[in-house]
TrEMBL record:
Protein name: protein acetyllysine N-acetyltransferase
Phylogenetic placement of the source organism: Bacteria, Pseudomonadati, Bacteroidota, Bacteroidia, Marinilabiliales
Residues reported to bind Zn(2+): 127, 130, 148, 151
Species for this entry: Draconibacterium sediminis
Top enzyme category: transferase
UniProt signal peptide: none
Amino acid sequence: MIDKLWQASHLIRKSRYAVAFTGAGISVESGIPPFRGENGLWNTTHPIFLEIEYFQKKPLQSWKKIKEIFYDSLGDAEPNIAHIMLAKMEERSFVETVVTQNIDHLHQKAGSKYVYELHGTYRQLICTECSSEYDMSFADLNYLPPTCFVCKGILKPDMVFFNEPIPAFAKKRSFEEAAKADVLLIIGTNAEVLPAAEIPVVAKNNGAKIIEINIRPSHFTNTVTDIFLEMKATEAMSELGRLLYL
Protein backbone atom coordinates (compact mmCIF):
# COMPACT_ATOMS: atom_id res chain seq x y z
CA MET A 1 0.00 0.00 0.00
CA ILE A 2 2.92 2.34 0.69
CA ASP A 3 4.03 1.97 -2.94
CA LYS A 4 0.51 2.77 -4.17
CA LEU A 5 0.29 5.81 -1.93
CA TRP A 6 3.63 7.06 -3.22
CA GLN A 7 2.54 6.46 -6.83
CA ALA A 8 -0.71 8.34 -6.19
CA SER A 9 1.08 11.28 -4.57
CA HIS A 10 3.53 11.38 -7.48
CA LEU A 11 0.65 11.51 -10.00
CA ILE A 12 -1.00 14.32 -8.06
CA ARG A 13 2.25 16.27 -7.70
CA LYS A 14 2.98 16.03 -11.43
CA SER A 15 -0.57 16.65 -12.59
CA ARG A 16 -1.53 19.64 -14.69
CA TYR A 17 -5.21 19.63 -13.70
CA ALA A 18 -6.34 17.28 -10.92
CA VAL A 19 -9.99 17.03 -9.94
CA ALA A 20 -11.53 15.31 -6.90
CA PHE A 21 -14.81 13.41 -7.23
CA THR A 22 -16.40 12.64 -3.86
CA GLY A 23 -19.36 10.76 -2.45
CA ALA A 24 -20.88 9.67 0.84
CA GLY A 25 -17.78 7.74 1.93
CA ILE A 26 -15.80 10.92 2.56
CA SER A 27 -18.43 12.18 5.03
CA VAL A 28 -19.19 8.94 6.89
CA GLU A 29 -16.34 9.67 9.27
CA SER A 30 -17.98 13.01 10.05
CA GLY A 31 -20.96 11.06 11.35
CA ILE A 32 -23.14 11.38 8.25
CA PRO A 33 -24.63 8.04 7.17
CA PRO A 34 -24.69 7.12 3.47
CA PHE A 35 -27.99 6.59 1.68
CA ARG A 36 -27.17 3.08 0.46
CA GLY A 37 -25.34 0.03 1.75
CA GLU A 38 -24.54 -0.99 5.30
CA ASN A 39 -25.92 1.51 7.83
CA GLY A 40 -27.49 3.43 4.92
CA LEU A 41 -30.47 5.72 5.46
CA TRP A 42 -32.66 3.68 3.13
CA ASN A 43 -32.38 0.74 5.53
CA THR A 44 -34.42 2.66 8.10
CA THR A 45 -36.20 5.38 6.11
CA HIS A 46 -38.42 4.90 3.08
CA PRO A 47 -37.03 6.90 0.12
CA ILE A 48 -40.56 8.02 -0.84
CA PHE A 49 -40.04 11.07 1.42
CA LEU A 50 -37.45 12.31 -1.07
CA GLU A 51 -39.52 11.71 -4.18
CA ILE A 52 -40.49 15.01 -5.76
CA GLU A 53 -44.04 13.83 -6.46
CA TYR A 54 -44.56 12.91 -2.80
CA PHE A 55 -43.12 16.25 -1.68
CA GLN A 56 -45.50 18.12 -3.98
CA LYS A 57 -48.52 16.20 -2.70
CA LYS A 58 -47.60 15.95 0.98
CA PRO A 59 -45.05 18.65 1.79
CA LEU A 60 -45.68 18.57 5.54
CA GLN A 61 -45.07 14.82 5.86
CA SER A 62 -42.06 15.08 3.61
CA TRP A 63 -40.60 18.04 5.51
CA LYS A 64 -41.00 16.28 8.88
CA LYS A 65 -38.79 13.42 7.68
CA ILE A 66 -36.37 15.74 5.85
CA LYS A 67 -35.89 17.82 9.00
CA GLU A 68 -35.26 14.69 11.06
CA ILE A 69 -32.78 13.20 8.58
CA PHE A 70 -30.89 16.30 7.52
CA TYR A 71 -31.54 19.49 9.44
CA ASP A 72 -31.50 18.03 12.95
CA SER A 73 -28.04 16.56 12.41
CA LEU A 74 -26.10 18.01 9.47
CA GLY A 75 -25.70 21.43 11.03
CA ASP A 76 -23.52 19.94 13.76
CA ALA A 77 -21.38 17.87 11.40
CA GLU A 78 -17.78 18.99 11.00
CA PRO A 79 -15.31 18.33 8.18
CA ASN A 80 -12.91 15.48 8.81
CA ILE A 81 -9.26 15.25 7.82
CA ALA A 82 -10.16 14.05 4.31
CA HIS A 83 -12.19 17.21 3.63
CA ILE A 84 -9.46 19.34 5.19
CA MET A 85 -6.69 17.73 3.14
CA LEU A 86 -8.64 18.33 -0.07
CA ALA A 87 -8.97 22.00 0.85
CA LYS A 88 -5.22 22.17 1.52
CA MET A 89 -4.52 20.44 -1.79
CA GLU A 90 -6.62 23.09 -3.54
CA GLU A 91 -4.77 25.84 -1.69
CA ARG A 92 -1.46 24.42 -2.91
CA SER A 93 -2.81 23.88 -6.46
CA PHE A 94 -2.54 20.09 -6.24
CA VAL A 95 -6.30 19.92 -6.87
CA GLU A 96 -8.22 22.42 -8.96
CA THR A 97 -11.84 21.59 -8.15
CA VAL A 98 -14.10 19.23 -6.22
CA VAL A 99 -17.11 17.58 -7.84
CA THR A 100 -19.31 16.10 -5.12
CA GLN A 101 -22.50 14.10 -4.88
CA ASN A 102 -22.85 15.16 -1.24
CA ILE A 103 -25.32 17.77 -0.04
CA ASP A 104 -23.64 18.33 3.35
CA HIS A 105 -21.56 21.47 2.54
CA LEU A 106 -18.56 19.99 4.36
CA HIS A 107 -16.11 20.67 1.53
CA GLN A 108 -16.89 24.38 1.73
CA LYS A 109 -16.80 24.26 5.52
CA ALA A 110 -13.31 22.76 5.29
CA GLY A 111 -12.16 25.59 3.03
CA SER A 112 -12.57 24.28 -0.53
CA LYS A 113 -13.55 27.18 -2.78
CA TYR A 114 -14.29 25.50 -6.11
CA VAL A 115 -16.99 22.92 -5.40
CA TYR A 116 -19.63 21.69 -7.84
CA GLU A 117 -22.55 20.02 -6.08
CA LEU A 118 -24.16 17.54 -8.48
CA HIS A 119 -27.04 16.80 -6.14
CA GLY A 120 -27.48 20.27 -4.67
CA THR A 121 -27.15 21.36 -1.05
CA TYR A 122 -29.21 21.25 2.12
CA ARG A 123 -27.88 24.73 2.99
CA GLN A 124 -30.17 26.47 0.53
CA LEU A 125 -33.96 26.49 0.19
CA ILE A 126 -35.89 27.36 -2.95
CA CYS A 127 -39.52 28.41 -3.37
CA THR A 128 -41.58 25.90 -5.34
CA GLU A 129 -43.77 28.76 -6.67
CA CYS A 130 -41.57 31.78 -7.48
CA SER A 131 -38.07 30.18 -7.29
CA SER A 132 -36.81 32.66 -4.69
CA GLU A 133 -33.73 31.31 -2.93
CA TYR A 134 -32.91 31.46 0.77
CA ASP A 135 -30.09 30.41 3.03
CA MET A 136 -31.43 27.79 5.41
CA SER A 137 -30.79 30.14 8.35
CA PHE A 138 -33.69 32.33 7.18
CA ALA A 139 -36.24 29.56 7.72
CA ASP A 140 -37.72 28.63 11.08
CA LEU A 141 -37.99 24.86 10.85
CA ASN A 142 -40.03 24.72 14.03
CA TYR A 143 -42.93 25.60 11.73
CA LEU A 144 -43.33 23.19 8.84
CA PRO A 145 -43.46 23.39 5.94
CA PRO A 146 -41.44 26.63 5.69
CA THR A 147 -42.88 29.20 3.31
CA CYS A 148 -41.55 31.90 1.01
CA PHE A 149 -41.38 35.47 2.30
CA VAL A 150 -42.18 36.76 -1.19
CA CYS A 151 -45.17 34.70 -2.33
CA LYS A 152 -45.94 32.36 0.62
CA GLY A 153 -45.17 29.33 -1.56
CA ILE A 154 -43.69 26.21 0.06
CA LEU A 155 -39.90 26.11 0.35
CA LYS A 156 -38.00 23.01 -0.72
CA PRO A 157 -34.42 22.04 0.13
CA ASP A 158 -32.29 22.89 -2.90
CA MET A 159 -31.13 19.32 -3.31
CA VAL A 160 -32.04 16.83 -6.00
CA PHE A 161 -35.03 14.70 -5.10
CA PHE A 162 -35.83 11.42 -6.86
CA ASN A 163 -37.26 12.09 -10.33
CA GLU A 164 -35.81 15.61 -10.40
CA PRO A 165 -33.16 16.66 -12.95
CA ILE A 166 -29.59 17.43 -11.93
CA PRO A 167 -28.99 21.22 -11.77
CA ALA A 168 -27.93 22.21 -15.29
CA PHE A 169 -25.00 24.42 -14.25
CA ALA A 170 -23.53 21.91 -11.79
CA LYS A 171 -23.89 19.10 -14.33
CA LYS A 172 -22.28 21.10 -17.12
CA ARG A 173 -19.34 22.26 -15.03
CA SER A 174 -18.79 18.84 -13.43
CA PHE A 175 -18.48 17.16 -16.80
CA GLU A 176 -16.26 19.96 -18.12
CA GLU A 177 -13.97 19.49 -15.11
CA ALA A 178 -13.87 15.72 -15.69
CA ALA A 179 -12.97 16.25 -19.35
CA LYS A 180 -10.14 18.67 -18.45
CA ALA A 181 -8.66 16.49 -15.70
CA ASP A 182 -5.40 14.65 -16.22
CA VAL A 183 -5.84 13.09 -12.75
CA LEU A 184 -9.20 12.25 -11.20
CA LEU A 185 -9.20 11.42 -7.50
CA ILE A 186 -12.29 9.35 -6.61
CA ILE A 187 -13.01 9.40 -2.88
CA GLY A 188 -15.73 7.44 -1.11
CA THR A 189 -18.16 6.74 -3.90
CA ASN A 190 -19.44 3.89 -6.03
CA ALA A 191 -21.39 6.45 -8.08
CA GLU A 192 -24.17 3.99 -8.78
CA VAL A 193 -26.59 6.58 -10.14
CA LEU A 194 -26.50 8.51 -13.38
CA PRO A 195 -25.16 10.94 -14.43
CA ALA A 196 -22.58 10.80 -11.61
CA ALA A 197 -21.47 7.31 -12.68
CA GLU A 198 -20.31 8.74 -16.01
CA ILE A 199 -17.85 11.26 -14.57
CA PRO A 200 -14.90 8.87 -14.06
CA VAL A 201 -15.58 7.38 -17.51
CA VAL A 202 -15.48 10.83 -19.13
CA ALA A 203 -12.21 11.59 -17.37
CA LYS A 204 -10.68 8.26 -18.38
CA ASN A 205 -11.79 8.64 -21.99
CA ASN A 206 -10.03 12.00 -22.09
CA GLY A 207 -6.76 10.49 -20.89
CA ALA A 208 -6.93 11.05 -17.13
CA LYS A 209 -5.24 8.79 -14.62
CA ILE A 210 -7.76 7.57 -12.03
CA ILE A 211 -6.88 7.26 -8.34
CA GLU A 212 -9.63 5.59 -6.33
CA ILE A 213 -10.01 5.67 -2.54
CA ASN A 214 -12.73 3.33 -1.29
CA ILE A 215 -13.06 0.89 1.60
CA ARG A 216 -13.96 -1.86 -0.86
CA PRO A 217 -13.75 -2.32 -4.65
CA SER A 218 -16.37 -0.50 -6.73
CA HIS A 219 -17.43 -1.03 -10.32
CA PHE A 220 -14.75 1.55 -11.23
CA THR A 221 -11.95 -0.50 -9.69
CA ASN A 222 -11.54 -3.00 -12.51
CA THR A 223 -12.74 -0.77 -15.33
CA VAL A 224 -11.19 2.72 -15.14
CA THR A 225 -9.10 2.88 -11.95
CA ASP A 226 -5.29 3.03 -12.30
CA ILE A 227 -4.39 3.11 -8.60
CA PHE A 228 -6.79 1.64 -6.03
CA LEU A 229 -6.27 2.60 -2.40
CA GLU A 230 -8.47 0.27 -0.36
CA MET A 231 -8.60 2.51 2.69
CA LYS A 232 -10.84 4.81 4.66
CA ALA A 233 -10.93 8.32 3.21
CA THR A 234 -9.36 9.88 6.32
CA GLU A 235 -6.48 7.39 6.38
CA ALA A 236 -5.69 7.67 2.68
CA MET A 237 -5.95 11.46 2.57
CA SER A 238 -3.81 11.82 5.70
CA GLU A 239 -1.08 9.74 4.06
CA LEU A 240 -1.35 11.60 0.75
CA GLY A 241 -1.17 14.87 2.63
CA ARG A 242 1.98 13.72 4.39
CA LEU A 243 3.59 12.66 1.11
CA LEU A 244 2.66 16.00 -0.46
CA TYR A 245 4.08 17.85 2.57
CA LEU A 246 0.78 19.54 3.41
